[in-house]
Design a protein that fits this description.
By secondary structure, the chain is of the alpha+beta class. The protein has a domain of 31 residues. The chain is 28% helix and 26% strand. It has 1 helix and 2 strands. It has a two-stranded antiparallel sheet.
Amino acid sequence: MAKIYSKKALASKDLKPKKEVVSFLLSYSQALKVVKIEDKSFEIIAN
């Protein structure tokens, strides 16, 4: 059976995110707080 896929990577190797995206992700990760109570976990975003 013939191969119908390529060996090339689907994503480009030189991906460069915008500064706005990096800033958003950093501020989100700093504001995110996970609280575990017994067997439950709650995610709280403190803005």
